[in-house]
Design brief:
This protein is an all-alpha fold. The protein is built from 21 helices and 2 strands.
Length: 495
């Protein structure tokens, strides 16, 4: 029995949340059963991610044929080092978001079964994007996660949440349509949808205009989902007006999965030679990553809603990740993937602190932070630590990935020095927008209203994630080794 389960781990990774989602919807409206089921399923996906990650140790690849149909005729689930690493990030984000959700969702959302149903569908979709080896199946999972995300954002208590969800629906649909058109062109030219099979057939026809157009559609579509500047317009309001738990989960996982899909198409399907020689992708991505870092950080300084601050900060951090990709080297890829991992921890921890503050104060504007350093010392201490990680201070995870990115940029000659200057300037701008919040929290008088520290059930996941940001800034063996293994795996696919 156990061997059967182990043999079907890739399928279970997606099937478990997919099956549990409608069950959550059927559970009593105001009970804790839906949360309990969702939390148990998230823990199982986390355990499966660890097992799959261990299977890829040493450069191994796990291939699973759905329904016994061998690829390329059937749908293949294919997990290499990079996929296993991203699965671990997404499933971990799901566990901590749901650990925080018990009290948070009870206060913010009335229809809990529907919420947890949508949450599990979103989790299943994100895991499916990472685990599938079929291009069209990737699109299907992308739509599952996107449709669930629109619903999750609309659960926000502010009426602007509906507008944010609708805006994301429109822009997300444009991105998904462009991706589908690109995949359609690939199928028309190759007669296959299996990514490994596409990688073998495209080199024979890569000089055709259809393949170039397909490449352009796919890259633009995924960059919209990634929220790469200037295609980021959907992200700030989606993060700002969604329920606290939704923002925590999306900030730690959604853009990382979109970047994973971008990496998969660039390096696995099209290959380095076509993507960066036949097509001028390197110059485009370097330019956009520089603009993302600078404009995202600058815009964050002037926001009054702290979720907006962190949302624009995420746009900046996406720039760092894409910058690593655009260096077209194993060192750059390792740095970009490492920053995906570290940013998931740092930004997840920061949004957890905002969830604590919203639970107590009912607001997260800059004026709501007055005196919070004295009223909610544990919450604000976690925020400060997360902020230092975002800046990239030594002994934090943020410093490690930025340092690796600087080392990778140093190998690139003149353009590398420009990128190093951008990284340092982005960190200085991060000091400015984090300091604005710290100054209000610690150097202004608290309001007369009776506010206390956040409940312990909210502080526990917040501090676990926050301390993880310190731990992975000191002991880098796991994160750097995993990032290097992931980079080597996808770089090998492109050769």
């Amino acid at each position: 029995m156990m061997q059967i389960i182990l043999n079907n781990l890739p399928a279970l990774q997606v099937v478990l949340p997919l099956v549990a989602a409608p069950i959550c919807f059927l559970l009593p409206r105001n009970s804790s059963y839906a949360w309990g089921l969702a939390f148990i399923v998230a823990i199982f996906t986390f355990i499966i991610s660890i097992l799959l990650f261990n299977q890829t140790d040493g450069g191994n690849i796990t291939s699973y044929a759905m329904g016994g149909w061998e690829p390329p005729w059937g749908i293949e689930y294919r997990i290499d080092g990079l996929g296993a690493f991203i699965l671990l990030i997404v499933s971990t984000a799901g566990v901590f978001a749901l650990a925080f959700a018990k009290k948070s969702v009870e206060k913010e959302i009335s229809s809990q079964p529907l919420f947890y149903c949508a949450f599990l569908l979103c989790l299943a979709g994100l895991l499916g994007i990472v685990i599938t080896g079929d291009a069209f199946n990737l699109f299907v999972f992308l739509e599952i996660s996107s449709l669930a995300t629109y619903i999750l954002i609309a659960f926000g208590s502010n009426r602007r949440a509906l507008k944010a969800a609708f805006q994301y629906l429109i822009i997300g649909t444009i991105g998904a349509t462009m991706l589908l058109i690109g995949i359609g062109f690939l199928y028309m030219m190759t007669g296959t949808l299996n990514m490994a099979d596409l990688a073998e057939r495209i080199p024979n026809i890569e000089h055709t205009n259809v393949i170039r157009v397909a490449f352009a559609f796919i890259i633009i579509g995924l960059c919209i989902k990634l929220a790469l500047f200037p295609l980021h317009i959907w992200l700030p309001n989606s993060y700002s007006y969604a329920p606290s738990v939704v923002t925590i989960f999306l900030a730690a996982s959604s853009t990382k999965v979109a970047l994973y899909a971008l990496l998969r198409f660039i390096f696995t399907v099209f290959g380095v030679e076509f993507s960066f020689t036949e097509m001028p992708l390197q110059a485009i991505l370097i330019s956009l990553s520089i603009l993302a870092v600078l404009f995202g950080s600058a815009l964050a300084i002037f926001q009054k809603n702290i979720k907006h601050v962190l949302a624009y900060s995420s746009i900046s951090q996406i720039g760092y990740m894409v910058m690593g990709l655009a260096l077209v080297s194993i060192a750059g890829l390792s740095a970009g993937i490492l920053h995906m991992f570290n940013h998931a921890i740092i930004k997840g921890g920061l949004f957890l602190t905002l969830g604590c503050i919203y639970y107590q104060r009912g607001g997260i504007k800059i004026e709501d932070f007055k005196g919070l350093g004295k009223i909610m010392p544990w919450t604000m201490a976690a925020f400060v630590i997360g902020g230092l990680g975002l800046i990239g201070m030594p002994l934090t995870a943020g410093f490690i990935s930025k340092w690796y990115l600087i080392l990778a940029a140093f190998e690139q000659g003149v353009i590398g020095f420009v990128l190093i200057a951008v990284i340092l300037l982005g960190s200085l701008l991060a000091v400015a927008y984090i300091w604005r919040i710290v100054e209000v929290a610690y150097f202004q008088k608290p309001p007369a209203s009776k506010i206390s520290e956040a409940p312990i059930l909210l502080l526990i996941p917040t501090w676990i994630v926050t301390l993880s940001g310190i731990y992975f800034g000191i002991d880098t063996s796991f994160s750097t080794n995993a990032a290097e293994m992931s980079a080597s795996a996808i770089w090998g696919d492109s050769q």
